[in-house]
# Entry
Amino acid sequence: MRNLIRVFRIKLPKNEKLISYIKYALGEVALIIVGILIALQANNLSENRKSERYGLLLLNEMHTSLLKDSTELSKLIVTLRELQTLSESLKTTMQSLAEYNDTLSKSFATISTIKTFSGNNVAYQNLNLTNLTKIRNNELRQSILHYYTASAHTENVSLEFKATTYWRQNIYPKYFKSFRTLEKAEPVNYEQLRRSSEIFVALDYVYNDCAYLIRKYKQQLQLNSELRVITVKELQKRGYQ
# Structure
């Protein structure tokens, strides 16, 4: 019995050392875990800041592309109105028995040059792929979707207007012996040309197509202006420099 007590007394210090070691080891493990968690949190914060900055950069790029779209739409509207005026002028001139001259030649070479809108949506595609769902401003997000959906529709509708194709496939080959875009168009027989109802209908095609496109582009221009205002407010609110 005495020997057993003696052995227990001898082993007790060793057990205390083991307990101390275990406590130390557990403390080290806890410190490592805390360090890892802190590092992960710091990394997440860094990634969030990078993502936030990138999102703002894309918004700014989108705003820049919107400015370009606005400029293009405004120029197209002016050009389309000029074509409408030219269409009416050609009809009036042909009805007046005026001789065919250089002005008429250039006018006929220009009348079929209806340009259509092609928006720049690269910034939107990048934004849509990465950060659009992260935009917390619901008004901004909905405005972005509305504008670019309308833009795609406007571009697709523009392709359905065939006045330019009609002139190049039917009018020029039938009534003109030479044609250079924006330069000159020489008729085979001007008397036959000015008496042809087909020519007057073709000029109406141009006028009507331009009228529709002007209306669509003015609507698109309004959406563009509204989206730019909302985008600028968002950039300012989030401190983008």
In short: The first strand starts at residue 176 and ends at 180. The chain has a mean pLDDT of 84. The chain has one domain: 2-237.
